[in-house]
Amino acid sequence: MDQIIITFIGATVALIIGCITGYYVRQSLAKKRAGSLEAKLVKKVQQTKEETTELLKTSETKAAQIIEAAQKEIDQRRREFLKAQQVLLDREKLLETKIAGFDKKEVELEEKVEKLKTVKENLEALRQEAETKLEKVASLSREDAKKELLVLVEKDSEKDILERIKKLEQSGQDALAVKAREIVTLAIQKCAINHTLELSTTTIHLASEDIKGRIIGKEGRNIKTFEKITGVEVLIDDTPDSVVISCFNPVRRQIATMALNKLIQDGRIQPAKIEEKVEEAKQEISKVIKDAGEKTLYDMNILGVQDKLVQILGRLYYRTSYGQNVLQHSMEVALIAETIAEEIGANAPIAKRAGLFHDIGKALDQQMEGSHIEIGIKILEKFGEKEEIIHAMRAHHGDYPVDSVEGAIVIVADSISASRPGARKDSIENYLQRLKALEDIANKFEGIDRAYAIQAGREIRVFVKADKVDDLAVQKMARQIAANIEEELKYPGEIKVTVIRENRVVEYAR
């Protein structure tokens, strides 16, 4: 029994010693592991610091480069600004010199007028003195003395007076002519509008001849669909790697050009894709028109124009008159009118705004009845433009009386812009007017969807609404359109009238 107790006690003591020993061993191992982790952490921190330092150095280098580039650009802009400022100062000095010269001439003219008045007064005094002496010496009656005196004075002074009056009149005319030339010259110097001649065709270059076949399509299906949707004529001839889009309407021609470029880039040319790309081009051209209107107002520094009027103004970018771009012509008229108004002391903002909007009616003259002046008046009234501006713009073709100085200025500015050499091409405008007249004749008939003049006016294609015009009426309409063309227009050769009726039904299987 004692032996068992002793054994138990010994085992217990051994167990306790083992537990204590195990505890210290575990503590030792834990400290070693902690030391290892701490070393790794220190190493990682050190590595991170080095990477951060390197990144900071790189960032500082890039920042220094950016600052240096920005400083160079600022210096360049400053030099350009100083140069422009110097040019402005030089022009201002030149203008001041001219004004001073004119003022000097005006003073000289006034002095000459005063001298002439003095001469007249002296002559009158001499006449009275001579009359008195004649009555005393010759015992002449008052009437006889008067006759003698008039004959004497007339002989002695007529030539001198006439010469003086002629010199004064010529001096005044010369001064006015010089001033007028200065005003017009200054107006033209301030006007820096780029002008381009708009043609009725656009050439599209192709990467290879194979694309022509894809544009034409099987049995001409693609090209017929394209011409029908866009209202243009696609000319494909032996000219290598190119096709020509012909249309007198610049907007339709631009839409067709953009759509065809999209189709060529996409590679899939088929009727469904043609409709899709034409619709995309119409949306893009609408944005281009709005951007053109906004840019014009920004360049002209004109504010307070409603968005819809901005859109209408932008349409002039694709409108020509006698070959002259109407939007560029309107900007030119606005600048010239502003300069003339400033020189003669008229209302320059009114003159400039009226000059810019004087042809606004041409943006919608193909969609509304009436002259472009009447249409322009309606547009400006609708969008809340002031009466002064409407009165100033409506008289530029003589349809309305000129009831303000600004109206006369707009007439002069319009004439200057239109009459300069090379500004307009009469033959192109007449050609475009003939094509428009063809379309107008067709559009008069009821049930017409749209009409396009193609082949340089040798053919007109008319699309009718299938739900309003049946097949029998199509034949009758073609004959009536041809008869009206023969009656209303003069033209060489013959004009082909093609009336197209299409009935399209679309259903979806779901």
From TrEMBL:
GO terms for molecular function: hydrolase activity; RNA binding; RNA endonuclease activity. Keywords: Cell membrane, Coiled coil, Endonuclease, Hydrolase, Membrane, Nuclease, RNA-binding, Transmembrane, Transmembrane helix. It is found in: Cell membrane. InterPro entries: HD/PDEase_dom, HD_domain, HDIG_dom, KH_dom, KH_dom_type_1, KH_dom_type_1_sf, Ribonuclease_Y, RNase_Y_N. Its main location: membrane. HAMAP family: RNase_Y. This is Ribonuclease Y. It comes from Candidatus Staskawiczbacteria bacterium RIFCSPHIGHO2_02_FULL_42_22.
